[in-house]
Amino acid sequence: MALSPSGSTRQRRHRHAIDPAIGSDHRLHSRTYWWLFFWFLVALAIRLTYLSSKPAWMDEVATTLFSLGNYSRLIPLNEVISLDAVLRPLQITPGTTAQDVVVNLLREDNHPPGYFVLAHWWIILFHRLIGSTDGYASLWAERAITAFLGALAVPGVHHLAQLCFRQQRLSMICAALVAVSPFAAYLSQEARPYSLAILLNIASLCCFVIATYAVAEGKPLRWRTVFGWIGVNTLGVSVHYFFGLSLLAQAIALLGLLVQQSHRDLSTWRKPNWVKVYIAAVGTFVGSVVWLPILLNFYGSPQSSFLRADAMNWQYFVNPIVQSLAGWLYAIIAPVTNGTSRFTVPIAVISCVVLLLGYVPWAAVVMARSLKFQLKNFHTRLGIQTMFSFFVVANALFFLVCYGLGFDITRGHRYGFVYFPSILILVGGAIAPFWQNQLDSEAANLEKLNLEKLNLEKLNLEKLNIEGPFNNFSGVKLPFIPQKINGKAFVGVVIGVAFLGSQVIVFNYSSLKFYKANLFIDYIQAKSTLPVVIGTSTLVTEQPAIVGMEMMSVGWEIQRSYNPNEPTQNWQGSPRFLLVENNVATNNSPEQLLKQQLQKIPEAIDLWMLGGSGEKLQESGSKANLNDENCQVAPEGTGNRGSFSYTHYVCQSR
Q: Distance (Å, rounded) from C-alpha 548 to C-alpha 646?
């Protein structure tokens, strides 16, 4: 959607004086901070609820070990090791510094170090204040910083909405939406950099909106905004490389506005405001390009290969669209899609049918009608156009990466942090008229008196539509039944459904939490009657790579919740671990290394090979070799529990 100017400053002031929705905002100003604080507390409470109850998955393990200043090669390879040994990278190393964080991260991981350095300072401070009884990092502490950063998005989105619309009521609705958003709760309960990326993205979009209004309305763009924009953008790229997609979307949206204005005035591109936008773009490029050599070093590595799409088939074309649609919806809804009880399946079916076939189509039709009104509204038109243009361009870039470069980045919903703030602004803008329609007649009468005091009695009040630009939003018809609800009730429904969705996320009834080590460990305990050895074949290449993340994820959950020293746990002795090296450079044989280590174990064991490595061993003929080592595939054979693929062997004593 093309961006268009919204009129002169004088005209804006005039309409501000006669619009009851705007006038009423002045009465709310004194309470704004209290309401913001309230929604911040709501957001923080949601994000801290059951914060450490869910197991850490592999990426969180990587975040933790690098935040501690450690590296994964602290794990011994090609030998049977203890639980403490496999978790050595997750133990606190005295004397580590932020420099260790940067060096070790860039040596093994494909993320920029911005968030990891911040997490390092926080985790060191936390352990100095609280202490550690076992020497391990605290998963709660690792997630707590993201929870706090996620809650800070409440005032951030409020400020962004205020810049877009200049209306306190509308801005507060957007703040409430981010407080209860299921997607925001999901990212805020993971020890990953996405909450910080969202916060910086909001700050960058604030500068983007200020610049858009400046060039559209001919207002001066301040230098402090330009340099602040450069600084925020540079920090954003240092937190996550996909932040660059947000910057590119902003640049394309502004380019569209420049082309539109140039059709009317060919000298537009030379005007001072546009020159300042160019300076911001150049400064951002200079601050971001420093990471390009590091990014290219990881291109094609095992850490990026999981995003490569399969050969062209119907899924290649359909998956990005379906996954994008799901990502958009998770901003405001979250159906039940996960659980272990016998009631989970019917509840999941009912919630998906009600939300996807009932609530979403109904709400979408209602919001679409409202957005059309907002596009005609003088005060909200440019803000809606700006956010919608950004949202469309950002998603177009996602599809370009998927179909043009062959990397399905829609597969990871977490990458939706790029366009997530714009969704909340658009939804907030769509439902705001239903709330504002409830302005009482006293407010309208007060505005009429103000007009009289301003000597505007001769104006045609009916033509100006003082008493009801929102008359079409007095009620909303419910789906499938003839009854209606009033405007405020509709806003309450949207926020309430989002809140219920956040509870689905918090209590782990959503499949967004893909890897669940607890389910795999439960299965090991149920099927193992002998001492347990958990093994895997870990790929080692010339490119930087982390080794043993799956093993550390399982081991950390055992250490946190399945303590082998507890008599109530079903362990036949403490579980042991084995990482055999699959080194492409040395062309070693992981099968032979596995065989050598099995020969050193005299007693009977249950051997669980992770990550499909057991299947690879069988494909290469190692099944016969394992038979020679008195190891037989168990009756359940291969499978998947909690997204951990495995092959179960029973090895007899020698």
A: 15
